[in-house]
Amino acid sequence: MNKPVQPISSLSLKLPKADRSIETYRLAASRTFPAKLEGPLNRIAFSAVHTVVDPFADNDPWLSAAVDWDKTIAFREHVWDLGLGVAEAMDTAQRGMGLDWPTSLELITRSVAAAKRRNALVFSGAGTDHLAVEDARSLDDVIRAYEEQISAVEKVGGRIILMASRALAKLGRNADDYAKVYDRVLSQVREPVIIHWLGDMFDPALAGYWGTGDIDKAMDTAVAIINGNAAKVDGVKVSLLDKQREIDMRRRLDKRIKMYTGDDFNYAELIAGDEQGFSHALLGIFDAIAPAASYALSRLAAGDEAGFHDVLGPTVPLSRHIFKAPTRFYKTGVVFMAYLNGHQDHFTMVGGQESTRSTLHLAELFRLADKAGLLANPELATQRMKTVLATHGIES
Asked: Cross-referenced InterPro entries, in alphabetical order (predicted)?
């Protein structure tokens, strides 16, 4: 497997610390990962990918998104080259958090077309976000909204990730309400979908999903609905940041249904699995660590579980930092990694969300990315870190 190179002793910069002092940080030994997939995989792995904005657009960032389509699709091609699938127009892309439905549909249309040109894997989010929560009066409103988005995605040849609905979270009072919506919607899909259960740490508007604030009861409802529609469900993506609940749910699913981990805290052990099964992956962190994730998964498929953990294990502290509370701001860290690694030439985000994390947070992110060997070009990453610090008035 790949070996660390010698320490980059010539590269250092001044970084702020939590105690408000400044340290001279010297970069650690780096690692290089293949730019393309090495060998087959025995796990399906989706990266929920971000959207690259146009920093020169004359728009109002809090009100509208200006997308750099070329850079956005180029990033997806980078992910596909590594053998990962793309989970399109999800929360990592700031769906419903700055990226509206018309722009999301254009993103899905372009991404599906690009995937078809290279026979790559892409599933796309269909939800109800074009229906303002305050305008949702009945469960039938929610059903119609789902139907509209599903039809639009299927019309351009896309596969569906059925996103959790803020409108349903508002209106759904009990298990029967959720069963009514999901049974009706799933009966109409052309191909099996991935069900997305997003916890309220990612989106506070989804509190009480499945009709209860009791997670155990919510899981009972979700499992019953999903297993009752097994022929229409490819898998379930769970983002609760609770590995044991994911394992428990995984063991209760119909054998035809895959579990896709969305646990950005514990993904390494959940993907590795145990004697009773394993999880596939649909992860926002795979945007930031795609080369390492691809290489680690290829080692796992080759029977080298130690090599898998050797590569993926050091990425977990970085992921836990990026996804720390308030978890919904994780997108900032993901885009910052893309900037550090040269996938885009600026640190500008949809909705101006580059401002949602502190300078201290970004400095620690840089340290952890370096320790995990995830700075593809350390010289470039160092210069860009210095640029960001300078914009905050910090001499580096």
From this structure: Aldolase_TIM, DUF993
